[in-house]
Each structure stands twice: as structure tokens, then as C-alpha cells.
Amino acid sequence: MTFFVPKGATFFASSLLFAAMAQASTIDLRVMETTDIHMNLVDYDYYGDKQSDAVGLSRVATLIKAARAEVANSVLVDNGDLLQGTPLGDYVAKGRVLRFGETHPAFKAMNLMDYDVGNVGNHEFNYGLDFLMKSLSGANFPYVNSNVYVDDGDNDASNDQPYFQPYIIKDKTFVDSDGNKQSVKIGYIGFVPPQIMTWDKDNLTHKVIAKDIIETANKYVPEMKAKGADVIIAIPHSGMMNSPYLKGEENATYHLAKVDGIDAILFGHSHRIFPGDKALAEFEGVDGDKGTVFGKPATMPGFWGSHLGVIDLTLEPAGNGWKVADGKAEVRAIARREGRDTVALVEADASINDAVKTEHEGTLEYMRRKVGESTADINSFFALVQDDPSIQIVNNAQIWYVENIVRGTSYEGLPILSAAAPFKAGGRGGPEYYTDVPKGDIALKNVSDLYIYPNDLKVVKLTGAQVVEWLEAAAGQFNQIDPYSTEPQQLVNASFPTYNFDVIDGISYKIDVTQPARYNSDGEVINQDAHRITHVMFNGEALRPKDEFLVATNNYRAGGGGHFPNLNGDTIVIDAPDKNRDVVANYLLSQAVINPAADGNWSFTGFGKANVLFTTAPKAKEAAAKNMMYKSLDENGFAIFELK
Fold first, then answer.
1. SS3 for 506?
2. Can you tell me which family this protein belongs to (predicted)?
């Protein structure tokens, strides 16, 4: 609109302009996100073999329907880590095996929910590219990813071709504030951590390459704007850290929010909740109440179908198109914690459960097959404070396996160690997220409970000194304890992932938590002179630093996952043809009956006068040792124990 302004009529013209702006129509647009579903399609706990109120896309579907009904205009996006994570995912990939032309059960469910677009997560690559493409072909909505390229082998970045469609711009018709229909061009661009090249090296080497998230955004976002995108929604399968930007960053969302042209961010990967996570809200430029990062609305709605992310944008006219004038974000939960109890906030959408009923029932039958028998209970209640039977079984199985595969090779005769970690030890999974297998028959579902990831077994060759450094990095699991203070002190560092607390069997050692941690969670030495690992013994003698060992582990750890010293792929000497979980299952079958008792190869040196506390499952009260005193339940439903 053009105004003629007579001389001396400036105030009058300004009034007309402001009146016209006030009357300009706007569009309210709701953007909804799911992420990190990890094949929790139905509200069922496959490891416990029981219905669950706390997980499931079928429960999120109910939230989606309600959120859609509240507004005139909405879109729905998924941010990956969809195809792997529960026995249902393994059953489709490895049990009955998905065939070309069949629809993956994830998309049988999601095709009923009117998704606009999806992004791939890092776990999408766990079963290989062929399986991934078979699966995605069943989606009736497009997938985007901008930083994975075909590996053409010519070392010329200028001619690299995207492996997926890097972005999409969709014309959507919305209703404006005056009730008129308007066309808006919405652009979606997806990203995945470049670390997929390490984590799934065997599946991806010489097939694809992955590039930096921020550099990729700077390449494509201007292109999207030039092609007319009114709104650009970034979908990074990447968490948020406020550390200085480094090329190849895994958790790059904080820096992605600084990229010009991006209007909203739907992120994931690190299984946190935003807005809502107090630690994230403390970052500079983050508004935890409004749910914005450097002014851009953003959501990360938990994991396993725990939450729905909701962003509400206000669009206003801009030239021949539209632009984002304002926005805010929130998350909506399917359940809440009340002490030990999970209280459902919504019911499951029956149509979603029905859509995958055949595969769900097939998974249950698959998981209930007997593979062995245990003479005692197996649980991970105390895996962070003492040697643990759930880890012991995995390490026993891995040593058994490697002893067999090195026979007749140049590695025969080298001592064999094994590293494993507690995958289910509470944390963000809640007070029920522990391995808990009662004595008696062990079924395949219990093997998945012991080893929840479809990792491939790898063997690395290290010196004794390097093995000790591995343990030093794992000992970052613990806070430093003041042995002279009688005030309560928390032993476990809650920010340190339990799956990075590796226990190495085949040697014995002690951990001195009165010393500061030598490494931080990024694998950097932060206390050069600190040493928590002491009394390291092999075959009854002090471990010699220069002696060589084979160590059984998994492809994630051996390839650099977790930022451990000397583990970057270069020390791998055996690429085993089997998955760690299959190794455990075959070990149980070979033993028929097992005694799962831990061998006590590690312990703490002592705490002095300290009052040391740790949290675990409430059910642990029944299994606690004499050196553990139950205190109370905390606000999240965990049992607090004092460790004597």
C-alpha cells in the first residue's frame, strides 16, 4: 500500500500507516514435532513384557489430535531415530526381515497421522543403507537430510551429490486471521551428526560421507530463501551444547540457531526436554520460559514417545509472501511421575496400536523364546556402585566369543579382556529403567534387556597403559568425594551417561573417587596429575604398562563413541561378523545353565568419613547388600541409598 503525504501532514500519514499495519491479516501456525521414538510405536515395555503408560507413539498420537483440534493451521514433523531401539525394530530388521514393497510398521502407524516431513537420525543407519531405503519407501511423506552425501571417492567436495533430498519447500494453504485462505511456502531442512561415519563405519564407509551441520546450513538456507521459502524450519537430529563451535560438532543446535534465515528449530538426539530442561535454559541466548534459542522458537520433546513438541508461530505479510513475526514453544507429556508411580495423562490411540498389531504380536512371540537358564536374579540396580551381574554376563560372553575367533590367528595367545557398560541404569529413563531378570528361564527378551543396542562386536589391541586410560575416562561417572566431610555427597555424576561407564573384565582394579576425574565427558584431560584407577592387577600381578591385550567391545566404543582415549577406530584389529547381542544369546545357549554372580573385579578404595549417597530403583531395597542403607524416595521416584 502506498501513501501520499502532503506537506505538513506527517502525523496524519503515520496514523494511517499504523492503522493499516494493525489491520493487516496474520497467520497463526502450529508446528508439532516427534523425535527419538526408537520403535516405541505402541504403549508397551518389551523388556518387561507388559503394557506401559510412559512410552509409545500411539499415546503421542492422542496429543497430536488434541493439539491439531485447537488451531486452524498446523504441520507435523518427525526428527528421526525412529527405526531402531526396541525388540520390535530388531524383529522387523533381523527376525522376520522387511522385504521390498512391504510397509515398515513405523510407517503403517505414521501414515495414519498426516506427517508433513521426516528427518533421519543417526540410528537410522544401524541396519544398513539397504534396509533404511526399503523402510523409507513405505512413508507417504517426504524425508530430508542435507549433510549426508554420496561417497564418489574423488576427494572433490565441489561435485558431491546429496544422498537424500537435502530440503523441501512445500506450498501450504492456511487460514488467516480474517478467515481468508493464504498460500505459505514452508521450507524444511534436516541434519544428522557427522559421527555416523564412526558409529556405523561398517555400514557407511565408501558409500556415503557426512559433513558439518553448520557449514551445510550456511550452504542451503540461503538457497531455500532464494527459492521463495517464507518460513524455514530446521530439523537437526542434534542436541544442544553451548561450548565453542568446532567443525564436525555432534550437538550443534545452539550454533545452528545463529544461522540467518532459520525461523524455528525442531531438535533431538540427546533425549532431553526443551523447553523444560533447566540446564539448557541457563545457556546465554536461551529463554527457557518462551522456549527460544537466540530468539528462535525450538523444541526437543524427549524420547520413546514421551512428549510432543509444539511451536506456535505468528506470520505476518512480507512483500509478496510471509515472515515469522513471533513464536513460542512448549512440550506436552503423555504421562507424569508421582513418586514411584507413572500417571497416564492420555490414552493410546487405538488405530495406531491396531496398525502394527501383527508385527507387535510377532515380536512378542519372537522375544519369549527360551535361550537359557539362570540360577540367580540378574539386575543392574547397583551397576554404578559395585561389580554387577548384568555387566558380568556380557563380559563373560564377549571373552568366550573372542577366545574362539582368535584360535589359529596371529592374535592367539594374547590375553583377552572385555569391556561392557550398564545400558539400563535409571537416569533419564526413570526409576524403572533397570535390567531386572528373575532367576529361572532366560528368554530372548531378557537378552535384549541385557544388551539393548544392535551393536557389532569389535576387538581392539591396546597396551596395559592404554587400558588404564580407558578406565580413567570411564571413572568420570563419579563425582569427587571429600573424605573429611560428613555432609551428604552424591556419588554418581548424573550428567555422565551410564552407557559410558565401562567395566573391563579380565583384570582387577580399584577406583579412588576422592581424587578428581582425569577426563571430562569429551575425552579431554582436565586434571593431568589425577589418577582414580589404582591397584590394577592381571593374573595376580601388577599390570605392566607395555604388555599388549585384546579387548572385546562394540563398534560404537571402538570407533570413538564416547570420546575415550586410544579408541578412534585405529586400534581395531578384529571386525567380528556378529552383533554383541547375538554373542550374548549364543553364549547363554552354549552354557544352558549359568551362575550370573559378578566376580568382584573392581571396587572403590574407600570414602573416609564421607556420607556417600546414590540413587537406584525402589525395587533395589529387596536386593541391597549389607553396606547399603535405604534412606528414602527422591522427588523423581528413585530410591536413595547410603553406601557404607
1. coil
2. Belongs to the 5'-nucleotidase family.
